[in-house]
Amino acid sequence: MSERSLLVRALWFVLVGWWATPAVVNVVWFLNATVVLIPLGIKLTNLVPTVLSLREPRATAAPEAARRQHPLLVRAIYFVLVGWWLSWLWANAAAFLAVTIVGLPIAYWLFNRLPYVTSLYRFDG
Predict the structure, then answer these.
(1) Which of 47, 62, 79, 87 is the most buried (most CB within 10 A)?
(2) In whole angstroms, how far apart are CA 82 and each of 33, 37, 66?
(3) Residue 76 counted as domain residue
């Protein structure tokens, strides 16, 4: 998929992204809270910046980044105790900032760190 022009991305944000992003964020949180649907929720988490402004989805971590991940058990315990509720607050704060336009750069920064806040998952890039 090729990079979209700034004009197309801006139009998407104005017409769709600003209202669709909070909806997707809350669907992701619901999927993650069900535990059974966590894999789908995690995949959708990576697509939140795409919903916001058609930003290209990030690739999964490179092999060297996979070695730097926290152990799965640690990530699972973190998710159960902290990640599920903190990611909801984090993502909704980012969605609110995105609609303020002035807060859009901060919202991108927050959305880019959403996988880590949710489950301590590190992305490269």
Answers:
(1) 87
(2) 12, 18, 22
(3) yes
Q: Is residue 1 part of a domain?
A: no
Least confident of 37-41, 47-51, 62-66: 62-66
- Identify the domain containing residue 106 by its residue range: 6-119
Task: Provide the 10 A C-beta neighbour count for residue 65.
Answer: 14
Tell me how many domains the chain contains.
1
Whether residue 124 lies inside any domain: the answer is no
Please indicate, yes or no, if residue 77 is contained in any of the structural domains: yes
Q: What is the pLDDT of residues 53-81, one digit of tens each?
A: 898 876 654 555 556 889 999 999 999 99
Cα 107 from Cα 3, distance rounded (Å): 20
CA dist 97 and 84 (Å) reads 20
Tokens describing residue 41: 């929720």
Q: What is the pTM of this model?
A: 0.75
77 CB-near residues (< 8 Å, 6+ apart): none
